[in-house]
Amino acid sequence: MSVNKSKPHILILSEDDANRQIANGFIQNLNINGRAIQVLQIANGWKKAVDSFITDHVPKMQQFPNRMMVLIIDFDQREDRLSYIQSYIPDALKEKVFILGVKSNPENLRKVTNTTFEGLGKALAEDCVNNTNKLWGHDLLQHNQAELERMTSSVKPFLFI
Predict the structure, then answer these.
(1) Among 71, 82, 104, 141, which residue has the least CB neighbours within 10 Å?
(2) What single-letter DSSP state applies at residue 136?
(3) Does the pTM exceed 0.85?
(4) What contacts 22, CB < 8 A, 6 or more positions away?
(5) pLDDT confidence of residue 93
Protein backbone atom coordinates (compact mmCIF):
# COMPACT_ATOMS: atom_id res chain seq x y z
CA MET A 1 0.00 0.00 0.00
CA SER A 2 1.21 3.48 -0.82
CA VAL A 3 0.90 6.49 1.47
CA ASN A 4 -0.26 10.00 0.63
CA LYS A 5 3.07 11.83 0.31
CA SER A 6 1.52 15.24 0.93
CA LYS A 7 0.25 14.19 4.40
CA PRO A 8 2.32 13.10 7.40
CA HIS A 9 3.44 9.51 6.88
CA ILE A 10 6.01 6.97 7.95
CA LEU A 11 8.09 4.61 5.87
CA ILE A 12 9.48 1.57 7.68
CA LEU A 13 12.72 0.09 6.43
CA SER A 14 13.48 -3.26 8.04
CA GLU A 15 16.80 -5.03 8.16
CA ASP A 16 15.27 -8.46 7.61
CA ASP A 17 12.04 -10.38 7.22
CA ALA A 18 11.55 -10.94 10.96
CA ASN A 19 11.59 -7.17 11.55
CA ARG A 20 9.29 -6.65 8.56
CA GLN A 21 6.79 -9.09 10.08
CA ILE A 22 6.94 -7.21 13.38
CA ALA A 23 6.21 -3.95 11.51
CA ASN A 24 3.30 -5.60 9.69
CA GLY A 25 1.88 -6.83 12.99
CA PHE A 26 2.19 -3.30 14.40
CA ILE A 27 0.15 -1.69 11.63
CA GLN A 28 -2.59 -4.34 11.90
CA ASN A 29 -3.70 -2.80 15.19
CA LEU A 30 -7.12 -1.22 14.63
CA ASN A 31 -6.07 1.89 16.55
CA ILE A 32 -3.17 2.55 14.19
CA ASN A 33 -3.73 4.62 11.06
CA GLY A 34 -2.30 2.08 8.61
CA ARG A 35 -2.86 4.45 5.69
CA ALA A 36 -0.11 6.65 7.14
CA ILE A 37 2.47 3.85 7.23
CA GLN A 38 4.19 1.93 4.47
CA VAL A 39 6.40 -1.07 5.19
CA LEU A 40 9.13 -1.21 2.56
CA GLN A 41 11.00 -4.19 1.13
CA ILE A 42 13.62 -5.60 3.48
CA ALA A 43 17.19 -4.37 3.16
CA ASN A 44 18.91 -7.72 3.88
CA GLY A 45 21.18 -6.47 6.67
CA TRP A 46 21.49 -3.51 8.98
CA LYS A 47 24.36 -1.96 7.00
CA LYS A 48 22.33 -2.30 3.80
CA ALA A 49 19.41 -0.62 5.56
CA VAL A 50 21.66 2.31 6.44
CA ASP A 51 23.05 2.45 2.89
CA SER A 52 19.53 2.35 1.42
CA PHE A 53 18.41 5.05 3.81
CA ILE A 54 21.28 7.33 2.79
CA THR A 55 21.15 6.80 -0.97
CA ASP A 56 17.44 6.22 -1.59
CA HIS A 57 15.51 7.82 1.24
CA VAL A 58 17.40 10.93 2.36
CA PRO A 59 16.80 12.68 -1.00
CA LYS A 60 13.11 11.69 -0.93
CA MET A 61 12.72 12.92 2.65
CA GLN A 62 14.08 16.28 1.53
CA GLN A 63 11.57 16.26 -1.34
CA PHE A 64 8.61 15.21 0.86
CA PRO A 65 8.73 17.22 4.12
CA ASN A 66 5.88 15.20 5.70
CA ARG A 67 7.86 11.95 5.47
CA MET A 68 9.34 10.22 8.50
CA MET A 69 11.42 7.05 8.53
CA VAL A 70 11.72 4.18 10.97
CA LEU A 71 14.69 1.88 10.58
CA ILE A 72 14.15 -1.45 12.31
CA ILE A 73 17.43 -3.22 12.86
CA ASP A 74 18.97 -5.90 15.03
CA PHE A 75 21.33 -4.33 17.55
CA ASP A 76 23.24 -7.65 17.83
CA GLN A 77 24.31 -6.73 21.40
CA ARG A 78 26.24 -3.74 19.99
CA GLU A 79 25.75 -0.71 22.22
CA ASP A 80 27.39 1.58 19.64
CA ARG A 81 25.08 0.63 16.77
CA LEU A 82 22.48 3.35 17.47
CA SER A 83 25.04 6.17 17.60
CA TYR A 84 26.80 4.76 14.53
CA ILE A 85 23.59 4.86 12.48
CA GLN A 86 22.57 8.24 13.88
CA SER A 87 25.87 9.68 12.67
CA TYR A 88 24.69 9.13 9.09
CA ILE A 89 21.42 11.03 9.50
CA PRO A 90 21.64 14.60 8.15
CA ASP A 91 20.99 17.19 10.88
CA ALA A 92 17.94 18.54 9.04
CA LEU A 93 16.30 15.08 9.22
CA LYS A 94 17.31 13.92 12.72
CA GLU A 95 13.88 14.72 14.21
CA LYS A 96 12.15 12.63 11.53
CA VAL A 97 14.23 9.44 11.59
CA PHE A 98 13.85 6.79 14.28
CA ILE A 99 15.90 3.67 14.87
CA LEU A 100 14.34 0.79 16.76
CA GLY A 101 15.11 -2.87 17.22
CA VAL A 102 15.74 -5.81 19.46
CA LYS A 103 18.91 -5.68 21.58
CA SER A 104 20.04 -8.99 20.11
CA ASN A 105 17.70 -10.16 17.35
CA PRO A 106 13.93 -10.70 16.88
CA GLU A 107 14.30 -14.48 17.01
CA ASN A 108 15.45 -14.25 20.64
CA LEU A 109 12.50 -12.02 21.55
CA ARG A 110 10.09 -14.37 19.80
CA LYS A 111 11.47 -17.34 21.74
CA VAL A 112 11.26 -15.73 25.18
CA THR A 113 7.77 -14.32 24.58
CA ASN A 114 6.51 -17.49 22.86
CA THR A 115 4.70 -15.58 20.11
CA THR A 116 4.97 -14.89 16.40
CA PHE A 117 6.79 -11.91 14.89
CA GLU A 118 3.43 -10.38 13.91
CA GLY A 119 2.21 -11.07 17.44
CA LEU A 120 5.17 -9.07 18.74
CA GLY A 121 4.22 -6.17 16.46
CA LYS A 122 0.61 -6.27 17.65
CA ALA A 123 1.73 -6.26 21.29
CA LEU A 124 4.09 -3.34 20.67
CA ALA A 125 1.25 -1.40 19.03
CA GLU A 126 -1.01 -2.14 22.00
CA ASP A 127 1.65 -0.70 24.30
CA CYS A 128 1.82 2.46 22.18
CA VAL A 129 -1.96 2.85 21.99
CA ASN A 130 -2.48 2.23 25.71
CA ASN A 131 0.62 4.11 26.91
CA THR A 132 1.92 0.96 28.57
CA ASN A 133 5.29 -0.71 28.61
CA LYS A 134 4.37 -4.39 28.81
CA LEU A 135 6.51 -5.49 25.86
CA TRP A 136 8.52 -2.32 25.25
CA GLY A 137 9.81 -2.70 28.82
CA HIS A 138 11.27 -6.16 28.12
CA ASP A 139 15.03 -6.51 28.61
CA LEU A 140 15.51 -7.02 24.86
CA LEU A 141 13.58 -3.82 24.00
CA GLN A 142 14.00 -1.36 26.86
CA HIS A 143 17.06 0.24 25.20
CA ASN A 144 14.56 1.74 22.69
CA GLN A 145 12.86 3.89 25.34
CA ALA A 146 14.34 7.29 24.44
CA GLU A 147 13.84 6.73 20.71
CA LEU A 148 10.30 5.44 21.31
CA GLU A 149 9.34 8.48 23.40
CA ARG A 150 10.76 10.80 20.75
CA MET A 151 8.88 8.95 18.03
CA THR A 152 5.50 8.73 19.75
CA SER A 153 5.53 12.43 20.57
CA SER A 154 6.14 13.17 16.87
CA VAL A 155 3.66 10.75 15.32
CA LYS A 156 0.75 10.49 17.78
CA PRO A 157 -1.34 13.25 16.19
CA PHE A 158 -1.69 11.40 12.87
CA LEU A 159 -0.82 7.80 13.65
CA PHE A 160 -3.13 6.80 16.48
CA ILE A 161 -6.84 6.94 15.73
Answers:
(1) 104
(2) T
(3) yes
(4) 14, 72, 106, 117, 118, 120, 121, 124
(5) 97
